[in-house]
Amino acid sequence: MKNMKISPQAPWFCSSLIDYFAGPIVRIAPNTLSFNTRSALNAIYGTRTANVKKGEWYKTFDIAAGTYSSFTETDREKHSIKRRWMAPAFSTESIKANEPLLIDIIERFCESLKPDGDGWGEKWNAHQMSVYLGFDMMGALVFGSDFKSVQEEGTRDFADCVLPAQKLLYWLSYLPVAFLVRPFLRSHFFEIVGGKPVQDNNRLIDYGKAQVQARRSNEGNEKGFSDGRDFLSRLAYNDDKKSGWRPTDLDLDTESLNMIIAGADPYSQVFTGAIFYLVHNSECLKKATEEVRSTFTSPSEIIGGPQLNSCTYLSATIEESLRRLAPVPSHVPASSSRAA
């Protein structure tokens, strides 16, 4: 292994390991195998009858917010209940209702990139700006908030903390003593150990808690989310019709944090990837640009619907970005649930 050179920043790290060892299955840690085959993807994640369950890693990932979310819940029945409970937030009607908010945020993002004069504008970090855009979009969807982190620096600490905090929690989740660490994730001691990212992540958790309490105490009109479009408002008094389960405040706290992180971080990765590949492939950029400009006469026309669906080359560009830069920060581990 000492002669093997792989950049730790490369998104193809595990793919490089597989190439190096010339096989689709690689042991990446004690008792841990990484599979890189289509059949394994389907066998492990594609069916409820698979002989696997979510690994212990999930029990640390967002427990700092108070309980397990629909992403980290390892009990299959509880996971199913939470998925059904959350379904209204992601319905076609819900997405359509929030579309004007997203369009406004995207238009402001585009305006912020325009140069002031006729020449070249100032350089900008595509990944950083994509992180802020993703965070602004998810803030609008989840909380109905207008963070404006693309244009203003006041809330950028929230957006900047997401990836560093998740990196820290990722390796903590694999510690043999992870079960001892979990109770201290919201403590002052852990803020000292984790530094500013953990402090900012706790501020984000507190912000989410405040939003939950505002909705629970019927302060909607005062807080400006009385229309109930945002995801949290849809979930606050919703229950699972099949089981009768109703969410606690902790469930809402954790789920709102999960939605922010699970939406903003993957979006920024894929969007950054699309920018990277398009600017490095001028012909592809030209085709995508011509397709969009021949389909729409002005930016205000670009909304979800048949016209946008007809942009097949643009869709293929997005799909290829998703393929090359999978919108997950790491492995999504599963463990054997019973003896085969």
TrEMBL record:
A GO molecular function held by the record: heme binding
> InterPro entries this protein is in?
Cyt_P450 (IPR001128), Cyt_P450_sf (IPR036396), Cytochrome_P450_monoxygenase (IPR050121)
One matching Pfam family: p450
The name on file for this protein is: Cytochrome P450
